[in-house]
Amino acid sequence: MAVLAHRRAGPGGSSPAAVKVPMRNSPADLVTLADLEADPHPALARLRAGSPVSWLPALGAWLVTGYDLAVEVMRDARTFTVDDPRFSTAKVVGPSMLSLDGAQHTRHRGPFNRAFRRDEIYARLGSFTRAEVDRLVPAIEPRGAAELRRAVAGPLAVAVMAEALGLGPADPARVLAWYDGIVAAVQAEAAAARAVGPAGTAFAELAASLREVIAVPGSASLLSQARPLTETEVISNAAVMMFGGIETTEGMIANALLHLLSSPAQLELVLTDRALVPAAIEESLRLEPAAAVVDRYATRDARLGGADIRGGDQVTVSISGANRDPAVFGAPDVFDVRRPNAGRHLAFAHGPHFCLGAHLARLEAQIAIETLLGRLPRLRLDPRYPSAPRGLVFRKPPDLRVRWSRPALAAGLSHLESMRPRRVA
């Protein structure tokens, strides 16, 4: 357990917060940012078993790795808030529903709640999402190979979020460039690095595009009707919705496909029974959530899992760690599409900041994966390229390169199979 050494300036340099000096060679002391970015799961398991709330010098924060403790932190916004100048996303896009709590959080989120309810999502966007997938997948079908993040998952997320927000047709390459810039900036802030110039340019370009949409007279855009928010507030919230929508969908699709294509027995179950696709998505969300961590900040001194948290301390919840807590999920490192309680995962967070777009993300992922598995025969990972997930905050394969049998070849293989002599019982 870490011990208190001295005080440092807290949020804004005004209130003090604790600086911790861990015991030398403690498990937390040995964890590096490189560990957390490459493959955090072994380190998270050690921390969870030894001290599920540990001061991590590499992060300059408490890291919560136990499931029940993670739920406690995310549920208690009065003690563990997002409303702090250090919150990384707010530094990039400004205050929004993602970085506010209490009445201000309700005010920022309220104008968008109804549009993202499950029934509204399926009614407004179900047909559009299916049509978009039916456009993207046939376009790559004749090739026999593709990188699916940029060929399907990313463009799908851009098109659907643009439609959801009432932005109209969007250039996927342009929006994805903005998105990459914003993600890089958030990652840099989370790692206490200086954000690079292109990140500011990306958000400025996105904001200019959103202003044009908001300014259209008589527009039915969700953004134009997001009263009583100011234009600046609408833009900040639109940015986090687009950012979260693209990140969640792209990560969900890429990670779920990676898990299925890396697990032949589980893939066979899903190919035999396509009704298991939603369960496979939930299990993938549990095993490798696209958003690995969420940050909170202690508003007062508190006791959490045996640790003494001081007011002003950063408390980082490891969604990845909580989702593999063996006290909740048996054999937690195993991908099991029939896991009965996979839906208890925390990939969409918990409490007042539960992901607004969870229903939309699930819809997109389900339609995309069903279509890819249905239209691309013998879909498999391309072994020539690495596909392991990476990322400190957002985890997914940097590239997801796959191969499949092209239609003519698949037909030929099927014909040969039909001519093979059958054994007579």
Walk me through the structure.
- Strands 3-4-10-7-5 form a five-stranded mixed beta sheet, with helices on both faces. A three-stranded antiparallel beta sheet has the order 6-12-11.
- With 425 residues, it is α+β, with helices and mostly antiparallel strands.
- It is built from 16 helices and twelve strands.
- The radius of gyration is 23 Å and the shape is globular.
- It has helices at 27-30, 33-38, 41-50, 67-75, 88-93, 102-113, 118-140, 148-165, 172-190, 197-215, 231-261, 264-272, 277-287, 319-322, 358-375, 407-419; strands at 3-9, 16-21, 53-56, 61-64, 80-81, 145-147, 293-298, 302-304, 307-309, 314-318, 380-381, 401-403.
- The protein has a single domain (3-419), classed as Cytochrome p450 (Orthogonal Bundle), CATH 1.10.630.10.
- It is 50% helix and 11% strand.
Write the layout of secondary structure elements.
Elements (H helix, E strand, L loop, with lengths): L2 E7 L6 E6 L5 H4 L2 H6 L2 H10 L2 E4 L4 E4 L2 H9 L4 E2 L6 H6 L8 H12 L4 H23 L4 E3 H18 L6 H19 L6 H19 L15 H31 L2 H9 L4 H11 L5 E6 L3 E3 L2 E3 L4 E5 H4 L35 H18 L4 E2 L19 E3 L3 H13 L6
Helix pairs in contact: 7-8, 7-15, 8-9, 8-11, 9-10, 10-11, 11-13, 11-15
CATH topology value:
Cytochrome p450
Show unreliable segments. Answer: 1-19
Q: Helical proportion?
A: 40-55%
Number of domains: 1
Strand % is: 5-15%
User: How many alpha or pi helices?
Assistant: 16
CATH class, named Mainly Alpha
Rg computed from alpha carbons, rounded to a whole number of angstroms: 23 Å
On the 0-100 scale, what is the average pLDDT? Answer: 87
Strand order of the main beta sheet, please? 3-4-10-7-5
